[in-house]
Fold these 3 entries.
Entry 1:
Amino acid sequence: MISRRTLHPARQGAITLLMVALASCVAPQQKPAPAPRPAPPPPPAALPAAPPQQDWRDVPLTPGDWSWRGTAGQSSIAQYGMAGQTAVFAVRCDLASRNIVFSRGGLASTQTAAMSFTTSYGSFAFTGTNGGGQPPAIVAQASARDPHMDQIAFSRGRFLVNVAGQPQLVLPSWPEVARVIEDCRG
C-alpha cells in the first residue's frame, strides 16, 4: 500500500506544475491603442465649371446694319454699325491700287496686329496697323483678287473679325460687302 506521505509530495508537485502552467497562459499586458489620426482636411471647394465653348456660328451678331455708298465703277464703301453712330467696321475699295481696305474702330496695343477673319470656309488673317484718324481705327488691306475676299463675301450667314485686345465683331454676310469687292475687281 502506498503511504500518504509519498502521495502528498507528488500531489504538491502536480499542483505547482499546474499553477506554473496557468500563470504562463495569462495574456500579456496590452499596449495602449495609438491615438486616432486626425481626419484629413476637407478637399478644396470645387471651382465652378467653365462655361461650354460656344460655336462662333451661334454667337449673337454685333448690333447694327450694313450700308453701302459709292458709284458703280468708282470707289465704294460698306460700313457696319448702328444708325446715327460711328461705324464699327468698314470695307472700302481703294480703286487706285485695287485693294480692299478693312477698318475697325479701336487702337491696336502694338505697332502691328493681326486682323483675323473666321468664315464658314475657314480662318485667315491680314496684318493690321493703327490707321490714325478720329475716331481711331485699326486698318488692314488685301488685294481685291485675294481668294479670301470670296470667303468673306460668300460666308454662310456671318463672319467674325478679331483683333487682339478688341471686342470680337460678328458681322452678317450681306450683299454690301460683296458689292465693294466686285466694284474693286472692276
Entry 2:
Amino acid sequence: MNNIKAQKLLNKIQRDLMRNGIITNTLISDLKDLRPLVVEEGQPLLAKVIRLTFEHVEAYDSFNIAIPDDEAVEEGEEAPVQEETTGQESLDYLLSLMADPSNRVNEIELREYVNAFNEYAEEN
C-alpha cells in the first residue's frame, strides 16, 4: 500500500481495534473509506478483501473468520485454516496482511481470507 492516506487510515483501524476491540460501526465506516483509496492504487485483491470484510461485519455484527494456518504455503497450494482463532486476533492479522499486499505470502493469505469469507457466507 503506497498511498500515505490509506496507510494512515489502516494504522488508525488497527489502533482502534487494539484499544477498543471490534466496534462495528466505526470499523465498517473506516473500511468503506479505505476501499476507494486502494481501488485508486490499482489493488483489486486488497479492494475485494476490504469489501468482503466490511460486508461480513455488517451481516454478522462480528468477525467470524479464522486465521489461515501458519504452515509454509507454496504457490498453487491452499493454506489450511485454523479453526480455533477468530474474532479480534484474526481481524488484526488480516489488517497486518493488508499493509503489504505485494508480499507473496501475504497475497496468498489474503486470497485464503477471500475463500474463507465466501465459504462462511455459503454456510450461514
Entry 3:
Amino acid sequence: MTDIQKLLDKYWEGETSLEEEKILRDHFNHGKVSHEHEVFRDLFQYFEEQKDIRYEGEWNWQAPQSSQISKVGTGGGKSGILTLARRVIAVAALLTLVFSVVVLVKNQTFKSKENSYVYEVEDPEEALEITLKALAMVSGKLDKGTSAMMNGIQNVEKANILR
C-alpha cells in the first residue's frame, strides 16, 4: 500500500493531521497522481479553489429590534413572511427528527424480536425430534398441495377436448 493510500485512508476516517492533509493537497494539486487515485484529484482541486473565496460584504450580527419584528398574520410584510418560514422550517425539522427516532426504535425492536426465536440445540436427540417435526409439517403441506394439483389434473383430463 502506498503512502498516499495510507494517508487517504486516514483522511476518510478523519484522523489526519494538518501536515498530512497538506501533503495530500500538494500531491493531488501539483504532483503526479496514479491512475487509481485520479478520481480524487477533482475533489482536492475543488477544495483548493474554494479556500480562496472570501466574503467582501459587511457582516451584520445585530438582532433585529422588537419594533422591527412583525407578528405573523398581521400583514407584517417581509418580516412576517420570514417568521412564518422559520416556523414552517422548525416544524418540518421537528417532524423529521420524530420520524427518524420512530424508525430507529422500530428497527431496533424488530431486530431484537428476530433474534429471540433462534436458539441452539445441543442435545442430538432433541435436534432429531425438532427436525422430524419440521419435516412432518412440510410433508403435510406438500401433501395438501399435491392433492390439490391431482384434483386439478383430473379435472383437466375430464374436460379434455382433444380426444
